[in-house]
Amino acid sequence: MLRIGSPHRREFLRAGALGLAGVSLPALLRADARTGARPKSVIYVVLDGGPSHIDMWDPKPDAPDEVRGPFKPIATKLPGVRFSELMPMQASTLDRLAVLRGVRSVENDHFLSEVYSGLPRGAGKRPAFGSVAARALGPANGVPPYVSLNRPTTDQFEFEKPYYAGPHHAPFRPFGDALDDLAPAKSLERLADRKELLKTFDTLRRDIDRHDAIRGVDQFQAQALDLITSPRVRDAFDLSKEPKRNIERYGTGKYPHQTVKSIMYDWDPKPFVLARRLVEAGARVVTLRAGSWDHHSGPEADIFHALKHIVPVLDKSVHALVTDLEARGLADDVLVVVLGEFGRTPKITPQGPGREHWADAGCAVFFGGGLKMGQVIGATDARGERATRGETTFQNLIATIYAVLGIDPATALPDFTGRPQFLLDDPKPVASLFA
């Protein structure tokens, strides 16, 4: 794979022209073509707010009362490994999953730059890994390579940004009028008009030194025409083609607000189903956020009441997604990652009760992607406070995703000033997943 340290600018640009994924990627793609192997894809499920590791994947039944929590541990498919009783379905399929315990984040607040790029705010603005994948790998079958099923928020809290990967590698979001634009042209005349509209961009002067936002226009032309003329793309987003019973199998129910017990929300399984349909159609990265996990203390709060409702329905969604991918022969081709931005304090706050932000230990769940499943990687101490073995960072997690996609985690990209900027400061994947 291509590795770039601090080369001469001309050498750096020449290397960049070979493709972000490095010189081994064309060989990899040729090998895939010969063997009929399907390109890898990633479904990235973020439990926004910070799920409680102790009450889910890393229970501490022998800890004191102020740590343990009310949920009983249950046996899993792996001898000696226990999960919370709220997750019987993941427990029964742990031989096909990999759980990482002791995942450590740098941020201890709801800034998800670390979740999507591997690096916190203080490390500079790095592109979201989906944008890097879109730049390196491009679209397949006209399907956008990077799709975010997360509605955009205010700019301050928007974390799936392409930055210097290029504006045309931002995620496609199927909201508002975006899907209307995917409708097939109803007549040849209308299609011709659309082409004519796109061609008007060609009148821009090509002899100027374009700003990166203008360079993105040419890419948008090609992508836009693919999108508006591809029934395959439209069908991938069309959940009416999915049997209702299958959508329901992904989990239905209600869950309470994190800190107000009386406010209830409907669990939405459709993003999980849609993510599966999109990777089947050729999307390389699909991201989604599921539920609400910021379970603090407060006069109306009760973390255990909230988890009792939300964890079982998440369990159903994850189990349905995993088994659906297996049934469709996609287990080795699609990597599923489920995580939050951090764990929650081992010590329970009496008022509520609740648990607060805790960056020193969290969990992540991996499935598929050709990685080694049926293992628990890392461990935390008796109170679930810190890793005692196999501490993993978000950089290691994102590096693992890059490696699965065939992208060298040690690659550098030219930033807005033209200087090479590494994707990650610590590009080591989680080695145990590749053993």
Short description:
This protein is α/β, with parallel strands linked by helices and 435 residues long. The protein is 31% helix and 15% strand.
Helix and strand layout, with pairings?
Blueprint: H1 9-17, H2 24-35, E1 41-46, H3 65-68, E2 73-75, E3 82-84, H4 88-92, E4 98-104, H5 113-117, H6 129-137, E5 146-148, H7 188-199, H8 212-229, H9 231-237, H10 244-249, E6 254-256, E7 264-266, H11 270-281, E8 285-289, H12 303-327, E9 334-339, E10 343-344, E11 357-358, E12 362-368, E13 375-377, E14 379-380, E15 387-389, E16 392-393, H13 394-405, E17 412-414, E18 420-422
Task: Walk me through this protein's architecture.
By secondary structure, the chain is an alpha/beta fold. The chain has a domain at 166-249. 31% of the residues lie in helices and 15% in strands. It contains 13 helices and 18 strands. It has helices spanning 9-17, 24-35, 65-68, 88-92, 113-117, 129-137, 188-199, 212-229, 231-237, 244-249, 270-281, 303-327, 394-405; strands spanning 41-46, 73-75, 82-84, 98-104, 146-148, 254-256, 264-266, 285-289, 334-339, 343-344, 357-358, 362-368, 375-377, 379-380, 387-389, 392-393, 412-414, 420-422. A hairpin with a 7-residue loop joins strand 6 and strand 7. The longest helix is centred in the C-terminal third of the chain and has 25 residues, at 303-327. Mean pLDDT is 85; it is low at 1-34 and 203-210.
